[in-house]
Amino acid sequence: MKTIGLIILRSLRQHLLSTTITALSIALAGGLLMSVWVVKVQSQTTFTQVNTGFDAVLGARGSKLQLVLNAIFHLEASPGNLAYSDYEFIRRHPAVKLAIPIAVGDNLRGYRIVGTVPELFSDVEYVPGRKFTFATGTLFNPAAKEAVLGNFVARKLGLHTGDTFHPFHGLIYDEKNQHAESYLVTGILAPSNTPADKVIWIPLHGLQTMTGHDPRAATDVSAVLIQLRSPTAGFMLDMMYNKQGNRLTFAYPIGAIMAELFNKIGWFDQVLTLISYLVALVSAGGVLVAIYNSMAARRRDIAILRALGARRRTIFSAILLEAAAIGLLGMIAAFAAYAVILAGVATVIRNQTGVLLNTWAYNPVMLWAPLGMIALCALGGLLPAWKAYRTDIADNLAPVS
Amino acid sequence: MGAAVRPNAGPMSLLSISALQKSFRTPEGERKTIVDVPAFTLAAGQQLALRGESGSGKTTFLHLIAGILAADSGSILIDGRDMATLGESGRDRLRAESSGYIFQTFNLLQGYSVLENVMLGMAFGAGSDRAHATAMLERVGLSHRLKHYPRQLSTGQQQRVAVARALANHPKLVLADEPTGNLDHRNARESLALIRETCRENGAALLLVSHDPGVLASFEAVQDFSALNRADQEAAR
Prior knowledge:
The complex is a heterodimer of chains A (401) and B (237). Chain A has 2 domains: 2-48 and 265-393, no CATH class; 56-252, no CATH class. Helices cover 53% and strands 15% of the residues of chain A. Chain A has helices spanning 2-14, 16-49, 64-71, 84-92, 119-122, 151-157, 204-208, 231-244, 254-264, 266-293, 295-307, 312-353, 365-380, 382-389; strands spanning 56-60, 96-108, 111-116, 125-127, 130-131, 134-137, 146-149, 164-165, 168-169, 183-189, 200-203, 223-228, 248-251. In chain A, strands 1, 2, 3, 6, 7, 8, 9, 10, 11, 12 and 13 form an 11-stranded mixed β-sheet that branches. Chain A has a two-stranded antiparallel sheet with strand order 4-5. Chain A is elongated, with a radius of gyration of 30 Å. Chain B is built from 9 helices and 10 strands. Chain B has helices at residues 58-66, 88-98, 114-123, 130-139, 155-167, 185-202, 213-217, 225-228, 230-236, and strands at residues 3-4, 13-25, 31-43, 47-51, 73-78, 81-82, 99-102, 173-177, 205-210, 221-224. The chains are: A alpha+beta (401), B alpha/beta (237).
């Protein structure tokens, strides 16, 4: 085995350029395969679990998915408003434990300004056992023009406690649409790795009564975030609002609605996965081509080793293991490629949603992808190994006297 | 001065060949016998030179003895084991265990260091022994070149590595095929002396084939390969 190891090492070194190029292509293929898989699994797991501490969302009649994306993830446009009395009704409903109203419609340089009530910060555990805390400063005064910034948006905008800003009208930034009001930053939230990190929170009343907003909607809210007393209450309210009523939409359960989104884009996952499988296959084919093309140069060495007493099966094993070794080297580098790809993807997702993917959480793909790739490379080494196996000693030990 | 002598046959024979035949198919599709040796023996520790012209079948003869080629018929007894009746794997094992081969072009592995080349000469037999490989290289005057690669050595030094590799596995029989064919006169003389001395020191028999009169003249025992090989005699008629 020591001798086979030496033969493999020397062969890899003798064909350093092709070894490096082939290993790099495997690294890219392996990195891509693992990234696609982990992003798929992690985003599905994370986004179906992120509910920022709520069970359901009540909003204007429309798509449940749009309602959840708007109220929980702070993406998409609001499907419309609901009257304050609708909020009051659901807040007092015996099946509801907590109801937090939110109002949207303004932004600060593209980041959403959301109006809400102080209970969001005092009563809600955004994940079990964790409430929002402040990195600096304190909560806004609900009667004043004050704001609390999510950690991500504060960093992006370079705002600190004590700074002031003017909101802009609409969800899309347009410098011509600046509101006259000035808001004072009273606190920056500690990172929560939830969509709340990319939101600028102001008092509900402040957003409702911002200059330029329709005074007729001054008491309306965009959505109500709801904690239920029991899961059965959710189905009861679903029946009441969605089946019996036709004015409002009750989005419940949030996880299932997000899972529907992933089901809808499942074909895209499949295409990405298929592409990464194909790239992996092509890379393994690269091992075959690289070793096979070097067989002419290797024949003399093989004949010499055989003349020294090496068995055919020793040569066969050496070539097969060399192919596997290229796969192994490639897959070691694949983790670096994976880290780079995932860091990029996680940053994009963080910027867009505020959600942080746990990129280094163990996923079985980190085991089966390297093993599978190494096996595939070894398979690619079969043909050259067979050719090496059949190398004739006498024909390749010139000259003959 | 070399004189044509018949090697001694007898119970002390290390190598004993009888009725050995090997033929190849020509491009025209006919079978042509290259080696047809009715009898040949070499005693343990004996040093014998075979004289023969290019294309006379000397290399094929050595390849048959080394088990690199399989014989069509006959027997090749090396230390009591018949190379001719063994399967390929058995021939590989017997070759690795009992013989060393010095090639005209040395056939060193270019991607391996001098020390690794010699260690590989042992690897498929009793196993690599770094200390012994180093000692062998010291014996041939290359202790300062252990980590060098063949391309970094002169032709004469490469030949010495080949000698060290052939003898590294304590072979009972060393086969040398025109070992000085690629060397200048001075290097050839020194190299030949080294091969003979190291074989003697290691108790290995030496069967050397050459057409160089200078080489042949230095051997006490020389045999004409054409006299030994009936196929060669047929071709000459």
